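During the practical work, I worked with a single protein chain and the tokens that describe its fold, as given directly below.
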Amino acid sequence: MNVEGKVYVNGKLIGFHKDIEQLTKELVARRRQGKLNYQINISYHEDTRELYINTDAGRVQRPLIVVENAKPRLTKDHIRQVEEGKLSWMDLINKGIVEYLDAEEEENTLVGTDENELTEDHTHMEINPTGILSIITSMIPYLENNMAGKALHGAKMFKQGLGIGSVNYNLRTDTEGYLMYYPQRALVKTRTMDLLQSDKRPDLQNFVVAIMPFMGFNMADAVVLNKGAVDRGLGRSVYFRMYEAEEVRYPGGQIDKFETPSEDIVGYLSEEFYKKLGADGLVEPEMQVFDKDVIIGKTSPPRFLEEITDFGVIQEKRRESSVVVKKGKEGVVDKVVVTEGPDGSKLAKVKLRTELFPEPGDKFASKHGQKGVVGAVIPEEDMPFTEQGIRPDLILNPHSIPSRMTIGHLIEMLAGKAASVGGEIVDGTPFNVESRDQLKKVLVSHGFREDGKEVFYDGITGKKITGEIFTGVVSYRRLFHLVSHKIQARSRGPVQILTRQPTEGKEKEGGLRFGEMEGETLVGHGAAMLLQEKFIEDSDKVTELVCASCGVIAVNDTIRRKRYCPLCDSANIYPVQMSYGFKLLLDELKALGIYPKLVLGDKA
């Protein structure tokens, strides 16, 4: 039966066709014969009887093997000809053996992963099942054993790992940068890692991991680290921070100047802040600097012209505008560069280097989304040990595994253990994994149990731990979420000029925001006095005068010692405590032509 339908090209309706299904088949057949460009995608929506033809740029496409009658078009003969160089990739496309599909055309396909599972309903087959995955996701070994959500988590944290960010890191002047001191090659790899040559730019370390509780220090997601391993370089890295300043030229011929500010400078700090500076006003290389230390001494001309003195000379009072070390970012001066800016002005850049040792609060993650912060760094002599005297680098909580269903993590531990004792890197490419029996044989041949479990002894008492502990080697990343860069506390400090509320952010010495949701919890608990304290007392409390007649903010004229209402000139005025942010809202409403009237209740 002929079915009439609409035809769209790049989303634009171009007409109707009396037999839309036959047209679809014919267009697909012509593309497979090489008569239409192989990048054109043809998608028929049966429910709406619409045919979408896409030829525009920006579509993500991927190649699939065409399947007809439960048999792939790619035969062993074709594979042999490709190996011999008689057939090229484009030949396979022009013969209709392989075709590129975009997301829309793939909606109407049934793609098989293996030739053995193909049925009459299948339209395509994967060239390799790893093609389902992105580049980053395909770098997770034994991925097919994990829950999909954890694979996404793991892939996200690939981008947060510390490694060798660039080979010329010592020449670069990035604002921020990280460098791992002792990165390693992965003992369990995937073929994607080989294609990307990730071993040439490693960003992980192979940890000996035991899965067991440890005195509550690794409760929930926390992990326990071995202090001995940390002292030997586990997770050690460095943080680079760049500071810069310029001798700006101003229109009146005035100029900024790099120098050690003298005591007569407006805004002079104190002698101790400037003692690290050299004769040129710049800090010396390899100098240890701390919070608020000046690293680029700089003075600027006054913003406004000063008064003329008795002798008719303009006295220029220069002001302090030095660059200081940001809060919590102390370190060692790695490099000092003096160069020219775009307009020929003098430009100084100072690079600080901070060594980062793993400490409680720092974040580590495996490739399988098993992320956790360090709960404790335990002395090596107190760590549990095996019969061979091996102490784990990291102890992971057993509760982390069942709820997240990251079985790939467990298999990688087993494979990493086999790779360590066998001296060969194991291939853990998703969907292409060899039998795990081989791993078991390697472990047994070296005197280990095939299930990866071992007997452990308590490092504190020396007693044998009841039960067997699953232990192995797995690659972990140190992430750039550092507790030293996040920890923040404040009692009193700076406020914003506009709202008079505390500033925001650690670097501005800001307060911790008590937001709407936090306020609602106090409302739910009925803690009215605490609500008042957090939103008013600790924030922007102000006492304003309010006219009882008009309900507007009154004027307090301190010069004439008079209080009056700007609307009715009444003296019927009362003090009211409120948030300054609320007073600001009233002023903004007035600016919009809205009359916000406050009705006073208790006037006592």
Notes: The radius of gyration is 35 Å. The mean pLDDT is 91.
